[in-house]
Every structure is written in C-alpha cells, then in structure tokens.
Amino acid sequence: MTENEIEQIKAELRRDYPGVEICVLNDGAEIVAEVEPKRAVAVIECSLPHFHRQTTEQYKVVRGTLQVTCAGQQHVLGPGQSLRIEPGQVHEARGADGVAWVEVRSDPAWTKEDHILV
After folding, report:
1. What mean pLDDT comes out for the span 109-118?
2. What CATH number should be reported for the domain holding residue 23?
3. For 96, which of 48, 53, 65, 81 could close a Cys bridge (C-beta 3.0–4.6 Å)?
4. Domain total in the chain
C-alpha cells in the first residue's frame, strides 16, 4: 500500500471505530486496528507466515477477497465468509484484488509474544 492509501485507511478506521489503536505492519502491507481486546479489524495486502501457540483466531471477511494459506491448505474467502485458525497452525493471507478488510476474533486475546513468525 502506498503512504496515501495507508493514511486513507487509517482515517476510515478511526472514523468507523473511534479510539481504536492502529498498527501498520510488514512495511505497510497490513494494518491492524485493535477494536477490543479480543477483536480487531485487519486491512491486509499481505501478511507474513506465522502461528500462535495459544490463540485461536476466527477470520471473517468484511470487504474484498482474502486468500489464506492455513496449515498448508489454500482458502479463498469473500465477504461474510470465515475461517477458524487453531493454535499451532502456520498461516498467512493476502488480498486477492487489492486489500481485504477482515474482522479477527482472538481467544485468548492476541499478544505479540504469541505471534511467532516463521
């Protein structure tokens, strides 16, 4: 994403989710807005392969199309579709046609200590 696109997305996230914490990852390829301790909105161009030792994640596409590789299997998700990711499953995602907006629910809540890049 360009700097301009990142700023536009951040402004939209702040408008839709007042008071949200926003983090730009992977050199601008992923933006994460922590809405609540166990709920975030991720705007994904491309995420790096990673896994969690403790956290179960539920991805639900809000906007766009998301290609997810999880535990070696390919998934293509459109708006309203979801995927459950269990602890230990290596996963990565990318927007199929530009960026994809994804609601991510985590249980227990996501922590950077439990986000292990591979």
Report:
1. 89
2. 2.60.120.10
3. 65
4. 1
